[in-house]
Design goal:
about 325 residues, UDP-galactose 4-epimerase, domain 1, NAD-dependent epimerase/dehydratase, NAD(P)-bd_dom_sf, alpha/beta, Epimerase_deHydtase, two-stranded parallel sheet, single chain, seven-stranded parallel β-sheet, 2 domains
């Protein structure tokens, strides 16, 4: 099977790329080459800018693919670009959407693929919904072979996943814990959440590739483990080898200090959810969660401890957390 990943070296896609090679898939990665130290050795790498339609058409003119997966499509214009490039070049196009697209405020804590898509809090999610709508309209009108996948808070060894951590320097949270500083938690910390290790995601994802029965369908792929945020932060601290003091502040109050957190909190991580993965398990019957969060986050912290050049700290983020804590004790 000849497969093209647009991206292929990010948090989620790195694990899928690696597993694809283990399954002897003929894998091509199309990206700008910024993180190809994380690409599998035997993958064929094509360097380019996927947003440059004419350049991409030239680079791929001699190729057709069984599957194309775009890991870095975020806006409708990205999808329109891909439709022009791949309409006659692939038997299946997989769009990576997001479980954050599901209805907020929610009508039920239990989420499956039939849950409505509506998120007034987060532009990121609104754009993912628009992408889904565009692709499904193209599927219905012209038979474009789309499959939609909705991950939720998927992490890997290069991640320290949390509701409140620096996006550009994830080690910041561990640094803060090891310096025995208070840790900020949104709400009372009791809302349920799901963390999914990228290797678990990969094992569920691969059976969708090249599967004609998956065309026209949407799938969510998450862990089956549900934890509340108090448990999550304490498991991170345990993996870091420290005990921590949590300070709880209402999400709405936190957002007053940083409006950019409105989407990721009210539109995602402050909402209590449990995911029903029955549908993906029908397509990937051997799928089950093998990496519980306690084990996965320990792997992440061990990797950072062994790769100290990645232990960067976001001091602006630290100052923000310090300010919120100081004013809400």
């Amino acid at each position: 099977m000849k497969v093209l990943f647009i991206g292929g070296t990010g948090t989620i896609s790195e694990a899928v790329s690696k597993l694809s090679m283990e399954k002897d898939i003929d894998l091509y990665l199309f990206n700008r080459g910024n993180n190809n130290q994380f690409a599998p050795n035997k993958a064929t790498i094509i360097k380019g800018n996927i947003r440059n339609q004419e350049e991409v058409k030239t680079q791929l003119k001699d190729h057709n693919f069984d599957v194309v997966v775009n890991w870095i499509a975020y806006k409708p214009e990205h999808i329109k670009n891909d439709l022009e490039i791949f309409r006659d070049k692939t038997e299946q196009y997989i769009f990576i959407s997001s479980a954050s697209a599901y209805q907020k405020p929610q009508s039920s804590y239990l989420i499956d693929e039939s849950t409505p898509l509506a998120n007034p809090y987060w532009e990121y999610s609104q754009n993912k919904i628009a992408c889904e709508n565009l692709l499904m309209a193209e599927y219905r009108r012209n038979g474009f072979p789309v499959t939609i996948v909705r991950p939720s808070h998927t992490y890997g060894y290069r991640s320290i996943p949390a509701a409140l951590n620096s996006s550009k320097a994830p080690w910041s949270l561990i640094d803060r814990m090891r310096r025995r500083k208070k840790i900020l938690v949104h709400g009372d910390g009791s809302s349920l959440w799901t963390m999914t290790h990228n290797t678990d995601f990969a094992r569920a994802f691969l059976p969708l590739m090249g599967n004609i029965q998956a065309i026209g369908h949407a799938f969510q792929i998450t862990s089956d483990e549900s934890l509340n945020w108090n448990q999550i932060f304490k498991l991170i601290a345990k993996a870091a080898g420290v005990e921590i003091e949590l300070l709880h502040v209402a999400s709405e109050k936190i957002i007053q200090y940083d409006q950019s957190l409105r989407g990721t909190l009210l539109g995602d991580k402050a909402v209590s959810v449990v995911f029903d993965n029955s549908k993906i398990k029908r397509f990937a019957p051997d799928y089950k969660t093998l990496i519980p969060f306690a084990k996965g986050v320990k792997k992440s912290i061990d990797w950072f401890d062994n790769n100290r050049e990645y232990q960067t700290v976001d001091e602006d983020w630290n100052k923000l957390i310090d300010k919120i804590i100081a004013e809400n004790k």
